[in-house]
Amino acid sequence: MSQSVDTDLPVTGNVIEARDLRVWYGTDRGPVRAVDGVSFDIRPGEILGLVGESGCGKSTLGRGLLGLLPDGAEMDGELRFEGQDLLALSKKELFARRGAHLGMIFQEPLTRLNPLMRVSEHFRETLRTHHQGMDKAEIDRRALEVLRQMGIPPTRYRAYPHEFSGGMRQRIMIGLALVLKPPFVVADEPTTALDVLVEAQIIRILHDLREQSDTSLLLITHNLGIIAEACDRVAVMYAGRIVEIGEARSVFAQPQHPYTRELLRSTISLSTTGLNYIPGAPPDLVEPPSGCHFHPRCPDAMSICATRAPVDRVHANGTRAECWAADRAEGLLGDLPPSDLAPLTREEISDADEA
Amino acid sequence: MFGRLLAPIRQTTGAARWILLTGLLITAIYVILALFAPWIAPYDFNQRGIDGAKFTKFAAPSGDHWFGVNDQFYDVLSRCIWGARTGLHVVALSVVLSLVIGVPLGVVSGFIGGWLDRLLVFVMDALYAFPSLLLAIVFAFLLRGPLGGGVVAAALSLTVIYIPQYFRVVRNTTVSAREATYVEAARAIGAKNGTIMRRYLFGNVIQSVPVIGTLNAADAMGTLAALGFLGLGIQPNEAAEWGYDLSRALDDPSGVWWTGFYPGMAIVLLITGLTLIGEGLNETINPTLRKRRLRKVVLPPRHTTPTTVEGEAR
Amino acid sequence: MPTKPETPVDAETVMDLDGLEVHYELGGGVVSRLFGVGTKTVKAVDGVTLGLRKGEVLGVVGESGSGKTTLGRALLGLAPTTGGSITYHGAKGARRVSSMHGRELRDLRTDIQMVFQDPHAALNPSMDIETAIGHPLKIHGIASGAELRNRVVDVLEKVGLSPPERFLSKLPADLSGGQKQRAVIARAIILDPDVLVADEPVSMLDMSVRAKILQLMLDLKNDLGLTYVYITHDLASAKFFCDRIAIMYLGRVVEIGSVDEIFADPKHPYTRALLGAIPDPDPNSTVVRELPRGEIPDAANPPLGCAFHPRCPVAVSNCGWESRDLRALLEEHWTRRDPDAYDHENALVGSLDRLDTPSTSASLGAGDPIAVTSLLERIRAENPEEPLWRGVERMEPEGDHVRIDFHESVDPALRAAGGVEVACVLYGDDAPG
């Protein structure tokens, strides 16, 4: 059954293809549109960064791709993994894909490792689940191989998780996710709990992965610096939508969407000389704002932004963004009446209405 | 405040809700019977006759005596109704007393720590390890002298066996809450230990107390009946008590079932009611057991938006 | 957008730390405490001397485990001082924080206040905002009733939680992360303190609000004449926010100086490593940088000599090389070898556990000292630049093992170097060549 994934090679060659994907949660107040119509591809061997403020749907999207959504969430649209429709799979079939084909790296490594099991036993369990009958020597060989890549010495192979530092544990988690050589891995804020230097080491490891393996990675983070250093492409998410996606270099050099631009400006880096921030907070996803979801916080908003949702368009620098202002800058809105293009008069956003 | 108290009931779903509501209903009936016993019960609990004429001993249930008459010429229905008053009175008193003693002790012990904590934990564990009925018997026996065989003596002997439960739960929660940043923050603003315990810890460590309280109430009811059964509880001339009536019913001639059946049922039903409340609350309050209320999501059909992505736009 | 205010120069000192030590006894039951065995001392803060100048923002920068948070807590008397002293020069003259107890210590809290890292945990979840923020005034008997409420409303306005009526009756759970941190700041400034210790005040917040909270803190500093101790692991925000910076590593200050000098010419290798590790959203940045290996060591078991030497790329002979470094070297070597080679070499050197006792002299090998020597020589040849070899004084067969002696170490103290002070053997009087 799982063989079909290996043999049916996709025509497009993309590992993940998502089209108009939606993930909604039911609550007492109505459905939360955590992911509301996103489309993107992940190419073999690339690292796609997914960035945005908290509560914009990043984690939900990441989990949705692996079918790890909690009860009460509904997902629709199209989601193809190596050409195969993941949404058509039953829970059991999806479960069989996870690990061997779809991997996950979590934020808190200690809570994901069983404190009573040695590192070697973790690897044995992981490998045996997906390769029944694999002999011990082969398990050890593959486990040690991947640990070596992660910089964990073989002398520590039989140690327990608590004997490792935080950074080492995260390396072990990454090793556990990669030992099955899955074509696609989601890493959800893998370095948030770590110190700066250790974070940099982990980013280095993820970066090196690009050269050493064919695994594609979706790296979810709120740190734009990490995206710039580790990712090939970046997707910026806001209020359940991917508002901009493209080559990391182009997006950072020439952000098309005002949200991307403001997010970059509000990041404090060594070259920061003044403090910038985005006023307000991400919207309530039960009732997102009309038109472009970002318009209440957008410095470039025009009248049309409050009424009509912008079109997802490829812009001159090759990045895809949905923004009326970006369209206008490229002279695409000539047909629209001037009233639509008038700057939007907005309510003052007080300091208190922040994230 | 009231809204927050009722919140668990509104938040519960499915089975937990039914468990909670059934328990509340049963208990409410008992509470009404207890509160209005003088008006509801046809006779007094120690009334053996009417207008000078004694009731017929062992009279079977009839229009005059719905639940019959027992060996002491008491009307069984009246004894059952008055028994609710006694039972709830004792149970409420003992639960309140063990709360008032156990919870503050737990907070202090958990927060201060050190030798005081070790001593209290030792004493409480010793009490807890002792079979509860045996402990209650010992205390009932000891208290009988100074306090007589009344409601207060019975409540106190029950209190002793339930204090350790509150103490343990509250102490353990306090030990972990003590390390919380907000406690450090309270210290940082110059709060004294007493203030920290009262204002910062107390409200946050008593969350599981209502559950233990109701479950203890059910347990206390059983223990009270057992004490009464053994003749160590409330004396018959002080108040009507189901356990005592039940023990007397044992010696009744065969065929007289009503003297034992009705008090027995009264005990079983009240314990069931209280247990159901406890379990229902537990499912609601305890986050590990609670299932988030899920609402079905129906994804509406999409309005077609133009897209530049390859593949059909839906 | 407003930028950083001017740095005050030659300002008077508000707090003095002189050789401050905060040591904790770790582990051990009654027996081990009685006999003094099995206990370990964690030197969370180990001899920190610095002065806090009035009106400045002093950054205390380091990784977790560097003792920066303990240092901040000690300033308020929340962590017990076990050695050295902290002196606060306030309105009532010089007072020794480190020897205060009870009432005296509680009174100190009207002058020195703290903002915590996690705004979600720093507020009592069952206390509404009005009570929580007004509580300091009530505790110290400064205000009550209508005046209390007025002052709460006033301070809510100050921290941007306006209109205040909207927030008074809210519980912390109803507030967003940024709002909670504003409330925590409000609670800290309502007593009108002189010094505010801010322990990573923005690290738990979203990128988009960090700048806003920092801006608020700068505004409050100017309006209220505050002095800040800004504890952080993030050099980027420290560069923007601070006037002076103290870099901490394993309980010690390894470099201290003005922001301008530290960033223009970072001296301590650890400072340089931290600077290099900051992920930069500049599209032209690349990952090719020198990163120190490993992680911050266990404070209960610190390295000999300079605590940073095992990770230091430029360490020299007297930095404190010892047996445990040899173990790390072998383990690192084995991450580059295949399993068969590892098995062979591991059998050759025998158990590494005897290297775990810190010593400047180590013995290695189980029966074949010649082979072990050649193994070590081979490892050395693979990477002759490895700093550890600079520390090896002698390596020769002795009986059935190889004996390795390391150079005697120097525990570097803070010394003036350029415009800053650095604790590194490479700088100062006994710096080699």
Describe the structure.
The complex is a heterotrimer of chains A (355), B (314) and C (433). By secondary structure, chain A is of the alpha/beta class. Chain A has helices spanning 3-7, 58-65, 91-97, 109-112, 119-130, 136-149, 166-178, 196-212, 224-230, 248-253, 258-266, 303-307, 324-329, 338-341; strands spanning 16-25, 32-42, 47-51, 73-81, 84-85, 102-105, 184-188, 216-221, 233-238, 241-247, 312-314, 320-322. Helix content of chain A is 33%, strand content 20%. In chain A, strands 6-7-8-3-9-10-12-11 form an 8-stranded mixed beta sheet, sandwiched between helices. In chain A, strands 2-1-4-5 form a 4-stranded antiparallel beta sheet, with helices on one face. The longest helix of chain A is centred in the middle third of the chain and has 17 residues, at 196-212. With 314 residues, chain B is mostly helical. Helix content of chain B is 67%, strand content 1%. In chain B, strand 1 and strand 2 (53-54) form a beta hairpin. The longest helix of chain B has 37 residues, at 76-112. Chain B is globular, with a radius of gyration of 26 Å. Chain C has 16 helices and 15 strands. Chain C has 433 residues and is of the alpha/beta class. Chains in contact: A-B, A-C, B-C. Chains A and C meet through helix 6, helix 7, helix 8, helix 9 and helix 10 of A and helix 8, helix 9, helix 10, helix 12 and helix 13 of C.
Q: Biggest sheet of chain B, strands in spatial order?
A: 1-2
Class computed from helices, strands and strand pairing of chain B:
mainly alpha
- Provide the helix percentage of chain B: 55-70%
- Residues in β-strands, percent of chain B: under 5%
Rounded Rg of chain C: 25 Å
Shape of chain C: elongated
Question: What distance separates the N and C termini of chain C?
Answer: 47 Å
Q: What is Rg of chain B?
A: 26 Å
Q: Termini separation of chain B (Å)?
A: 50 Å
Main sheet characteristics of chain B = 2 strands, antiparallel
Average pLDDT of chain C: 85
Query: How many helices of chain B?
Result: 12
Roughly what fraction of the amino acids of chain C lie in strands? Answer: 15-25%
Q: What structural class should be given to the helix and strand makeup of chain C?
A: alpha/beta
Record field, number of beta strands of chain B: 2
DSSP strand tally of chain C:
15
| Main beta sheet of chain C | 8 strands, mixed
Uncertain ranges of chain B: 305-314
